[in-house]
Design brief:
alpha+beta, Double Stranded RNA Binding Domain, two-stranded antiparallel ribbon, two-stranded antiparallel sheet, zinc, Znf_C2H2_sf
């Protein structure tokens, strides 16, 4: 006697077993009422995947996921969301998607009470309590709680990203990631916050955003107690304590805690500068640099000092300037007490005390304390002068020289002496001038020991000895 579909379905509600389960798995002892179910289950242990996609070669254990996958190639999405119009390839995906709009989260964790909209999410979450990490990297053995995590990790080894954007060429591991990315080009933001109306490109972004309104921060660091609203931010924070830097450069061996830092670093080797200014053609490593650069053309200076009303094109320049008023910075040099806004700036400064110069020019062997200095130095060999004056056509190797030159045309003199009111277009000229008031004379004649505040005075004096 065959069991009807209704009877089989009723078991999911009652848990009542009308028949015995004669098919028992030898691997995990799970039992089944039907031979077909048992045979399908066995594939999870043997690794057999009989359903193969003719388009891309991907294989599947079960027929239903295989059918769903095939739709990704033909583009068939017969199930449409009535709320936002999003189309999906299968009915189960539509049901899960609809919960974004209804807020329904039927799967609750028995350990911590956290609720989820789909069963796969709660299964992955439960592993954070059990410590189970069933997905191991074949390259390095590192284990992960989800299949998505291990695939993301594998990029660090093979760089494989099969799904490519037709607009900009950016590649992704998963088709879902590509779809979300494509919305950058189309401007589509289908997920809208009911509280404030802000719209988002992907469902995870709106879930994280909603925590701003609820104040929920479900990810808590066991080391320091700091809480986070988003899991990626939490994972990156944990690396501060563990010292883990999973993203390693194949060129120089330098390791990074964030994939974004790693990608930016890679460009120092490839020379890739994907962000181009449409005004002057200058290219940049990352978008923020381009945004700041554009202000040179527009004249926009959004950061204003309340102390002296001076304005700046970037937050970094503004913060650096503020130290001149406050004398305060979070990173202090133990040797001389000088303060810095950024830890990287402090590290570079410390090399002036240690004498360390890790960046060496392959052309002439000259060494430098920071990477930006060697990049500029290389121009003395290549002859490159990227900073050209539109007024007179004169070109410069250094941006500071170019900025100083431009003030000759504009008449701007931003460096003003508090003692006598004299103004200067160059910071170096201003520094030399202040020595007169401070009676500072750092330049000494090697012949007679007489000291001078500026090099021109020393040169004049030296002529007396050379007569």
């Amino acid at each position: 006697m065959r069991l009807s579909s209704l009877t089989r379905h009723m078991r999911s509600h009652t848990g009542y077993e009308l028949f015995e389960k004669p098919y028992k798995c030898k691997e995990c002892e799970k039992a089944f009422s039907y031979l077909k179910s048992f045979q399908r289950h066995e594939r999870s242990h043997t690794g057999e995947k009989p359903y193969k996609c003719k388009q891309c070669g991907k294989t599947f254990i079960y027929h239903q996921p295989f059918q769903r996958h095939e739709r990704t190639h033909i583009g068939e999405k017969p199930y449409e969301c009535k709320q936002c119009g999003k189309a999906l390839s299968c009915s189960s995906s539509l049901r899960v998607h609809e919960r974004i709009h209804t807020g329904e989260k039927p799967y609750e964790c028995k350990q911590c009470g956290k609720a989820f909209s789909c069963s796969s999410s709660i299964r992955v979450h439960e592993r954070t309590h059990t410590g189970e990490k069933p997905y191991a990297c074949k390259e390095c053995g590192k284990a992960f709680i989800s299949h998505t995590s291990v695939l993301t990790h594998m990029i660090t080894h093979n760089g494989d990203r099969p799904y490519k954007c037709k607009e900009c060429g950016k590649a992704f591991i998963f088709p879902s990631f590509l779809r979300v990315h494509e919305r950058i080009h189309t401007g589509e933001k289908p997920y809208k916050c009911k509280q404030c109306g802000k719209a988002f490109r992907c469902s995870t972004s709106i879930q994280i955003h909603e925590r701003i309104h609820t104040g929920e921060k479900p990810y808590k660091c066991k080391e320091c107690g700091k809480s986070f609203s988003a899991r990626p931010a939490f994972r990156v924070h944990v690396r501060v304590h563990t010292g883990e830097k999973p993203y390693k450069c194949k060129e120089c061996g330098k390791a990074f805690s964030r994939i974004s830092y790693f990608r930016i670093h890679e460009r120092t080797h490839t020379g890739e500068k994907p962000y181009e200014c449409k005004k002057c053609g200058k290219t940049f490593n990352y978008p923020l640099d381009l945004k700041i650069h554009k202000r040179n053309h527009t004249g926009e200076k959004p950061y204003e000092c309340k102390e002296c009303a001076k304005t700046f094109i970037s937050l970094e320049n503004f913060r650096r300037h503020m130290i001149t008023h406050t004398g305060d910075g979070p990173y202090k040099c133990r040797d001389c007490g000088k303060v810095f806004i950024f830890p990287s700036a402090l590290r570079t400064h410390e090399r002036t005390h240690t004498g360390e110069k890790p960046y060496e020019c392959k052309q002439c062997g000259k060494a430098f304390s920071c990477s930006s200095y060697i990049r500029i130095h290389k121009r003395t060999h290549t002859g490159e002068k990227p900073y050209e004056c539109k007024e007179c056509g004169k070109a410069f190797i250094y941006p500071t020289s170019f900025q100083g030159h431009m003030r000759m045309h504009t008449g701007e003199k931003p460096y003003k002496c508090k003692e006598c009111g004299k103004a200067f277009s160059l910071h170096s000229s201003f520094q030399r001038h202040t020595r007169i008031h401070n009676y500072e004379k750092p330049l000494e004649c090697k012949q007679c020991g007489k000291a001078f505040s500026v090099s021109t005075s020393l040169k004049k004096h030296m002529r007396m000895h050379n007569r």
